[in-house]
Write a structure and sequence with these properties.
Layout (H helix, E strand, L loop, with lengths): L6 H11 L6 E5 L6 H8 L5 E4 L5 H12 L14 H11 L4 E6 L1 H7 L3 H11 L4 E7 L2 H9 L11 E4 L5 H8 L3 H11 L3 H8 L4 H8 L10 H9 L3 H12 L5 H8 L7 H9 L3 E4 L13 E4 L2 H10 L3 H5 L3 H28 L3 E2 L2 E2 L4 E6 L5 E9 L5 E8 L6 H12 L9 E8 L11 E2 L1 H7 L2
Parallel strand pairs: 1-4, 1-5, 2-3, 3-4, 12-13, 13-14
Antiparallel strand pairs: 6-7, 8-9, 10-11, 11-12
Helix pairs in contact: 1-2, 4-6, 8-9, 9-16, 9-18, 9-20, 13-16, 16-18
């Protein structure tokens, strides 16, 4: 797969390592998002890149010395008794500034707990001849080592870079598909480049699902476990919570009832999943975050959502090599599944965007009672930055829609919102295909959303 995007990340790293002052860079984020590929792309042939493993510290020191020897002749001919001895000798041996990248840094710390303090002393001396880059997939450990205020290396980094999943527009570019196809693919793979790479190896989405997920030999069949091992002590509880959310259990009270636990015991685990970027806590537009009764918990990552919606409930069939039966179940509900991500992508596209001369803030959906007997839902609600205009939107992942009818119904619902008084309403439709009545104003297509999310 061709390397796409990450231009800002590259520029920020390059700015530090091209300077005269010795820099300290921290790169972290979930697995498979391309951290190592990004670093290898930025580093030059004279820099040193080391991928740590889970061996003892003595072995890691030996392996790093051998790696350094590819740039500093004879560096591995000496046995180094400690990390401090290795770094000190490297400083003495090099004559020109270079970058040393330690990938999977948490593995090194696991076998050498004192390593962060050694690096702290190295940085505080201020006489390094090399830039130091540390990288890790364990968000919890990287926070504990560097980002948390009590960490040994807190405040030392010149750059802390969290590598996030990529946007819809780049999947569209990689797969060279239509915009509706990109939305569909994104609802499965999300923004993780490694998943895109696996998808690109297959001739179709169906083939990719059968090869990598709907098979007991699938490359990604154990993927969530690999992610959770990095950051969670209790993977079973996380699995259970995500399985419940993926199958329609969205309120804390409902999750607690299924687990037969008090709701108060779930606050910590749910917050942890939110911090890691695996779930979102959703509230109706305009509601305070203190209002827990109206909170909905949803899986925020498309791949994990797909996994816990379709793989976990059908795992027994998959283990029996009945992938075709799972695929049949998928086709029965996949359009509804994709529509959820279509709505979410539309809200993301509207947030911070200029529409009809107004810039809108963060978009949410709204749901609730507007009278004793009537409850309504609106897919997209956003307020202009001046507070005078309200954008409301209806999202449809179906075909042959009548735009005039949808706009009329949307305006009727919008006028019942409790916070609409005194605001101008802009009704918008977000449609998978052109409407049958050929109305074009205030309509956003998948092509529009792909462009807006660049």
């Amino acid at each position: 797969m061709n390397f796409v995007n990450r231009t800002e990340e590259q520029a920020r790293i390059q700015k530090i390592i091209s300077g005269e002052k010795p820099g300290f860079i921290v790169v972290y984020g979930r697995r498979r998002c391309g951290k190592s590929t990004l670093l290898k792309r930025v580093l030059s042939d004279t820099d040193i890149y080391f991928m740590a493993d889970q061996t003892e510290s003595t072995q890691q020191i030996t392996l790093l010395a051998q790696t350094i020897a590819t740039q500093v002749q004879g560096f591995d001919l000496v046995k180094y008794p400690s990390w401090e001895a290795l770094f000190t000798t490297l400083n003495q041996r090099i004559t020109e500034r270079l970058s040393l990248c330690l990938d999977e840094f948490p593995y090194m710390v696991k076998s050498s707990p004192g390593l962060p303090s050694i690096i702290q002393k190295l940085i505080d001396r201020g006489d390094n001849r090399f830039h130091l880059i540390v990288c890790g997939s364990s968000q919890q450990l990287m926070n504990g080592l560097i980002i948390d205020s009590t960490a040994p290396l807190y405040g030392r980094a010149d750059l802390i870079l969290k590598v996030k999943p990529m946007k819809l527009a780049y999947l569209h570019e990689v797969l060279q598909c239509t915009a509706p196809e990109a939305v569909t693919e994104f609802s499965v793979w999300g923004g993780v480049p490694r998943y895109w790479e696996l998808r690109q190896q297959e001739t179709s989405l169906t083939a990719a699902l059968k090869t990598h997920l709907f098979s007991s030999f699938g490359t990604l069949i154990e993927e969530p476990l690999r992610l959770f091992v990095d950051d969670m002590r209790d993977t079973a509880q996380s699995y259970t919570i995500l399985s419940l959310i993926g199958n329609g259990v969205h309120r804390m009270s409902e999750i607690a009832a299924r687990l037969e636990k008090p709701a108060t015991s779930l606050a910590g685990p749910l917050d942890r999943l939110i911090q890691l970027g695996y779930i979102d806590r959703e509230l109706p537009f305009g509601e305070s975050t203190r209002n827990t009764k109206k909170s909905y918990y949803r899986i925020s990552d498309p791949f994990l959502n797909f996994y816990f919606t379709y793989i976990i409930p059908n795992r027994s069939l998959i283990e029996l090599d009945k992938g075709d039966a799972v695929l049949l179940r998928l086709t029965e509900s996949f359009s509804v599944y994709t529509s959820f991500w279509w709505e979410k992508l539309c809200r993301q596209a509207v947030s911070g965007t200029l529409v009809e001369g107004h810039t809108f803030g963060y978009a949410r959906s709204w749901w609730g009672n507007v009278s004793r007997d009537e409850r309504i839902e609106i897919d997209v609600v956003a307020e202009s930055t001046d507070g005078k205009v309200l954008l409301v939107g209806e999202c449809k992942w179906t075909e042959s829609e009548n735009a005039a009818r949808l706009i009329s119904e949307l305006e009727e619902k919008a006028n019942k919102l409790p916070f609409v008084q005194g605001k101008t309403i802009i009704p918008c439709l977000f449609l998978k295909t052109k409407p049958v009545d050929n109305i074009r104003q205030k309509i956003f297509s998948p092509d529009n959303i792909v462009q807006m999310l660049k």
